[in-house]
Each structure stands twice: as C-alpha cells, then as structure tokens.
Design a protein that fits this description.
Layout (H helix, E strand, L loop, with lengths): L6 E5 L2 H14 L2 H4 L17 H13 L10 E8 L2 E11 L2 E11 L8 H15 L4 E6 L4 H10 L2 E5 L2 E7 L2
Parallel strand pairs: 4-5
Antiparallel strand pairs: 1-2, 2-3, 3-4, 5-7, 6-7
Helix pairs in contact: 1-3
C-alpha cells in the first residue's frame, strides 16, 4: 500500500535556494536541473558541478522568482515533501504563447518514484489555469517507458519528437 506524500511548493528565497543547490549537487546532474551556464553549449554534457554552474544555478532561480510587480516568463518553486526540499518545479511560457505553459520538474535521485511528480502536476494544472493557460506542456529527454507511463497516467498525450518526449494536456 502506497501512502500519499504531502507535497508543498515554496518560493525560492536565499535560504531555500542554498538548500536546493545542496540537494542538486548531492543528488542530480547539472544538465538535469538547469539550463546551460553562460558560455556553455546546450549540447555539452553537463555531468559535473563547477563553481560556474553553481553560480548559474543561483542566478537562474533568482531570475525566476515570483514577483507580482514585474511578472517573469518563467517561475520556479522548491518542492518540499515531509518538510524537506526534494527538488524544484517551474512554469514557463511556451514560445511566447499566453495560452500555454510548460511545466518542469526535477527531483533528487532518492526522491524519485515516490509519486511526487503526480502531485506536482496537479498543482501545475491549477497554477496554469490561474494564468489563463489553455494547455500545459511537459518535455523530457528521459525517454524511458516509466517516464512515458507517468506522464500518460497524469493525463498528458505523449509523442516522441526528435528524441524528446513531449506531453500535452488541455486545460478547462
């Protein structure tokens, strides 16, 4: 029997940011949790944490903070489960389309496979609707059958598009 895990999404202030970075360094690869650092190629394998990448991680999350006075195209939150930071979630505009949002999520290795992604997805549905989005998109390069089934179980229609799984779901 699986117990439901209580998941919270919290703003990424400086204290949360340092906890999020510590988790990322301990339990994820840079390429799994952030875009390339300035000067890095998107195709470069990012498998080690350097001071440049740690700085870029901090700046990325600072740029993506919720700001009611100056909306940003991408917003991130830390994901907490059982009171611990376990990963991060984001919502972003898709190609400047105000009717679409892309949801992103990464979890530390030891927190994967515990149902957290499904809970975050339902949160993302509600948050995207408050932004007047009509569809939600999820993209992943992790093309395993488990990832695909997880997206489909949540309700995404999934296609393989050039080596990337792309899930789309219409919102009411």
């Amino acid at each position: 029997m699986t117990s439901q895990m209580m998941v919270d999404l919290v703003p990424v202030d400086e204290e949360v940011l340092e906890g999020l970075l510590a988790l990322a360094v301990a339990e994820a690869l840079p390429g799994e949790v952030m875009p390339p650092a300035s000067g890095e190629s998107a195709t470069e394998p990012r498998t080690t944490w350097t001071d440049l990448r740690k700085g870029a991680f901090r700046e990325y999350h600072r740029r993506c903070r919720v700001n009611p006075h100056s909306p940003v195209p991408e917003v991130t939150w830390a994901v907490k489960a059982r009171g611990r930071i376990v990963g991060a979630a984001r919502l972003a505009l898709v190609d400047g389309d105000p009717a679409a949002r892309e949801v992103g999520l990464w979890l530390g290795r030891s927190y994967r496979g515990q149902g957290i992604s499904g809970e975050v997805a339902y949160w993302a549905f509600a948050a995207a609707q408050t932004m007047d989005a009509k569809r939600l998109v999820a993209r992943t390069t992790a093309r395993s059958a488990i990832v695909r089934k997880s997206l489909e179980r949540i309700g995404f229609q999934v296609v393989d598009s050039g080596g990337v799984l792309v899930g789309t779901i219409s919102l009411p």
